[in-house]
Design a protein that fits this description.
The protein has helices at 33-37, 59-62, and strands at 22-24, 30-32, 52-53, 72-73, 82-83. By secondary structure, the protein is α+β, with helices and mostly antiparallel strands. The strands form 2 sheets. The chain has a 3-stranded antiparallel sheet. A two-stranded antiparallel sheet has the order 4-5. A hairpin with an 8-residue loop joins β4 (72-73) and β5 (82-83). It is globular.
């Protein structure tokens, strides 16, 4: 099941579960549409894969299967993710 991460790993923009702006790679790395199509040039910086729109989980299923609250944000020039 998708984790539905809450933010863009590049710019830290909020991406709530209903966001049509969220893009993911096959490893569920999550980026906003602007970063995925712009600075990342349609390629995941973590795995090199392409992006697809993240599916939107129906509201009635979010209670049983909630979205993740773990934020992953990678600053340029720093090693490894910053999580909170």
């Amino acid at each position: 099941m998708l984790t539905l991460r809450p933010n863009c790993e590049h710019c830290n923009k909020d991406l709530p579960p209903h966001s049509a702006d969220a893009m993911i790679c096959s490893f569920e790395c999550t980026f906003c549409r602007d970063c995925a199509n712009g600075v990342l040039n349609h390629r995941c910086p973590n795995c090199g894969g392409n992006f697809a729109p993240r599916p939107i989980r129906p509201v009635e299923l979010l209670e049983k299967y909630p979205a993740s609250t773990e934020r992953i944000w990678k600053f340029s020039g720093m090693e490894g993710p910053i999580t909170s």
